[in-house]
Amino acid sequence: MKAFEDAGFYRIELAKQLTMKLKTLVRTGNRLASPSEQLHILQCSPVVAFSDKLAEHVALPLYRKQLTTLQINVGKLCNQTCTHCHVDAGPDRRESMSHETAQHVMDFLARSEVKTLDITGGAPEMNPQFRMLVREARKLDKQVIDRCNLTILLANGFTDLPEFLAEHQVSVVASLPCYLEENCDAQRGNGVFGKSIEAIGRLNELGYAQPNSDLRLDLVYNPTGLGLPPGQHELEAAYKSELDSRYGIQFNNLLTITNMPVSRFLDDLLRRGKYDEYMEKLIQKFNPSTIDNLMCRSLISVDWNGLIYDCDFNQMLDLVVAEGAERVHISQLTDDLLAERAIRTANHCYGCTAGCGSSCGGSLVK
């Protein structure tokens, strides 16, 4: 792990400066705030089309399997502005799921065989419907996942969240892109690492990731540079050793996720002239063994307005699930509606199929 710790200090210092000043693409009027502009860049770049690469290994189109997870993006409001964020979330965003849409989510879960409600954002806990969604989903005996940035657990007005999450047995999946403070703060903002460690300690005190406890705390690693994630098991062992010895904190599993060439990470690649290099790396590392386990095969994504997508990344590119010319809304959704439905793909999908693969549940090839 020596190279992992020593790499890219010049970039880290630059990223620290950028993160301190970072605003969302929408706030700055960046052309990449438009999903269609992002998709245009992804599809027009001189690379092998993902659909052509996929066709070499499986019959197209790519079909959905049994739906097991409903992932809802409840909005783009966040207390952080991270350099890699594919949602372009931040304190200046106001998109937020309404009570009516949240109720449609609950109505679907009540009639569905889906086992898991996966809540993301933004900082999902900042949405006014978050606690209702958790309570009602747990009443339906659904597993609930909170994709948490950790620092929100220490923010004014949210300090009782750890107790709430523990009380309702919510599984926490939390981003901690490095066990080294300088690397983490470079990607997520100055002071974020220290607050994250404090928040993990609080969760540990409540029973998360403790022996004989059902309260799960998984951490998420994503690279701070142009590289792909290293082996998940090897890196997990390093994380556990370092975080325990340095800070006395514990977690269950580490999930490694590839940075997707979408939104702010796409903007960063283009500004640094590294886009072609990164896409070529993803293509060269295409791994057909990942295809059966792609998260879009068993997950559906819902945006803050209630519209349906094959995954959260497709959501950010506005690659909506549709019936003819009509977009499918959560109020119309049934398990049967999605059975054996073709999945929409584009060149960003190389991010999920490179190396050991990438998904909201970590690597795809164990």
- Which percent band covers the strand fraction? 5-15%
Stated plainly, the CATH topology is called TIM Barrel
In the predicted model, the low-confidence regions spanning at least 5 consecutive residues are 1-20
Work out the helix count: 15
CATH architectural label: Alpha-Beta Barrel
The overall pLDDT average reads: 90
Count every beta strand, where a strand is a DSSP E run of 2 or more residues: 10
Give your account of this protein's structure.
The protein has 366 residues and is an alpha/beta fold. It has one domain: TIM Barrel (Alpha-Beta Barrel). Helices cover 37% and strands 11% of the residues. The protein is built from 15 helices and ten strands. The chain has an eight-stranded mixed beta sheet with strand order 6-5-4-3-2-1-7-8. A two-stranded antiparallel sheet has the order 9-10. α8 links the parallel β3 and β4. The longest helix has 16 residues. The two termini are 20 Å apart. It comes from Neorhodopirellula pilleata. Keywords: Iron, Iron-sulfur, Metal-binding, S-adenosyl-L-methionine. Its cofactor is [4Fe-4S] cluster. This is Molybdenum cofactor biosynthesis protein A.
